[in-house]
Specification:
Blueprint lengths: L2 E10 L2 E4 L2 E5 L6 H11 L12 H13 L14 E7 L4 H9 L11 H4 L5 H11 L5 E5 L5 H14 L4 E10 L2 E11 L10 H4 L3 H9 L7
Parallel strand pairs: 4-5, 4-6
Antiparallel strand pairs: 1-2, 1-7, 2-3, 6-7
């Protein structure tokens, strides 16, 4: 049974884009963390733990939150049958550097548990899983760049070996002020209508993933 792209969310360059349409954006060149707070407030998300997360987890959490918001897949599928497969290039280096700054000097040695707890990229996936009750495959893989072949291959394998009915997969990268996130909600072809979406355009394959990733150059202000 083929897999289909049910929905996707892209957060880059001060914009939030869902299924190719901008749903939020800022014209000012705000710092990455300030922009993510603006996204949180704009979508009226109520999850106080968000403010304790590192930048990478905030970016992944927000993208997944918007992706799963309307309609939520839990309305159709049991959340325990949902998987999370994420990729990025920098792992958790953004918070790793902050943690290192607290331990590099013997004279000013003040490690922060709130930083240390996020020094693994899979914590990002764990935050998403906890928020949405997802208990299926949960992985973060490291790739030099956005790799649609890797994302599609691992996701297909998860559907074949796990009892998944839907999966969040894609790319979440943050390193200093550079951030980009592109997540897909993927499910099996259940014969339900996808409105006016072309079937060829929503097949879950590397070509369609790369098409969405490159679309940032076509975004309108």
């Amino acid at each position: 049974m083929p897999l289909l792209i049910r929905k996707y969310c892209d957060i880059r360059k001060q914009r939030v884009v869902v299924d190719g349409k901008k749903v939020f954006g800022q014209e000012d060149d705000a710092a990455a963390r300030l922009f993510l707070k603006s996204v949180y407030r704009h979508f009226r998300i109520d999850y106080p733990k968000f403010f304790k997360m590192d930048g990478l987890s905030k970016l992944g959490f927000l993208t997944a939150e918007i992706l799963l918001g309307d309609p939520a897949p839990a309305q159709i599928h049991a959340p325990e049958n949902g998987g999370i497969i994420l990729t990025n290039a920098s792992s958790s280096v953004d918070i790793d550097k902050k943690h290192f700054d607290t331990i590099k000097s013997r004279e000013q040695y003040f490690p922060s548990p709130s930083n240390f707890v996020y020094t693994l990229p899979n914590i990002m996936a764990g935050e998403i899983a906890i928020r949405h009750g997802m208990k299926g495959e949960n992985s973060v893989l490291i790739s030099r760049q956005f790799d649609p072949e890797l994302i599609v291959g691992i996701t297909r394998l998860a559907f074949e070996t796990e009892s998944l009915t839907f999966c969040i997969c894609g790319w979440v990268e943050m390193n200093d002020e550079h951030y980009e996130s592109l997540l897909f909600l993927v499910g099996q072809d259940d014969g339900l209508s996808d409105g006016d979406k072309s079937r060829e355009d929503i097949i879950f394959d590397p070509l369609n993933l790369m098409k969405r990733y490159k679309a940032v150059n076509e975004w309108k202000n």
